[in-house]
Cell division protein FtsL (Congregibacter variabilis), 92 residues
Amino acid sequence: MNPSTANSLWIGLALLLVMGSAFSIIGSTHVSRSFYAQLQDLEARRWYLEEEYSRLLLEQSTLASHFRIESEAGDSLGLAAPGHDQTRLVAK
């Protein structure tokens, strides 16, 4: 084999390896950026869900307050707390 042919083969192989390395870097950069974009979307969704959960907790505490339950029972159902004349003490 001619020395210039051997050098050409080594140069061609090195060029092929460099090009392959460059394309794999481009591919991994693309994948990394797409994963980062997906991470940003998931973090935005998590923040939205945390805000929604906080709103729901506030709404639950508002709906479950004793004052609201008592007023709803009186307004909607016509219920009222019994007076002293309507209560009895039961002793054993």
Summary: Residues 69 and 75 are 10 Å apart (CA to CA). Residues 3-63 form the longest helix (61 residues).
